[in-house]
Design a protein that fits this description.
The protein has about 240 residues and is an alpha/beta fold. Helix content is about 30%, strand content about 35%. It folds into two domains: about 120 residues, Response regulator (Rossmann fold, 3-Layer(aba) Sandwich); about 110 residues, LytTr DNA-binding domain (OB fold (Dihydrolipoamide Acetyltransferase, E2P), Beta Barrel).
Length: about 240
Amino acid sequence: MNEQLTCIIIDDEPPAIRLLEKYVEKVFFLNIEATYTNPLEALQHIEKGTIDLVFLDIQMPELTGIQLSKIINGKTNIIFTTAYPQFALDSYEVSAVDYLLKPFEFERFYKSVLKVQQQKITSPKIEITDNHFFFLKTDGKNKFVKVFTNEILYVESLKNYVNIQLKNTQVITYNTLKNIKDHLPSSQFIQTHKSYIISIKHINKIDNDSVWIEKKELPIGNTYKKSFFETVNNNKL
């Protein structure tokens, strides 16, 4: 089965966007969700955690592609598309999947997106057994850790890894925050920041910008405030 990839395009030049749209339409496993000429607007979309891949220009007003990739901090895959070869080294420092130098042909584009598809196919999966626990693949070919959802305090993104903080220990796995979120019961967990998902029942205290889980203070990002406080009101915390 072919894994579908949801992507967005960020480029301040409309002709460059149109070319990428044309290439994306030719690839059956790519679904384009939006295009942006403003990287700040695109950032709000990315922080929702629904994007698998970003085609990202580097030289843009307001925010460069390199700066944006550091803010994204591993939350999605990035393929840089730029006319400037001098930024290639910077792209590898932020763990970009590839660096496409404009103008590039479809064949080069396809090889690049194929890397992302193969990574998704072979990435660690969460095996769900019921609503109370799941087996999480960690190091080793057949090594799994049993994680009880009622013991999870919060989940933290660490670039290409995820820390699942439990009551008495933690599990660090090569995974994505989005993948973990997709397998947690939405009635019990909520995302409060681009890097954090928290257990609602383990909340001890809340103010306008922070939430406390046990003694740990975690931030509430502006993108997530509305949905978070709606959940708080619904649960009458």
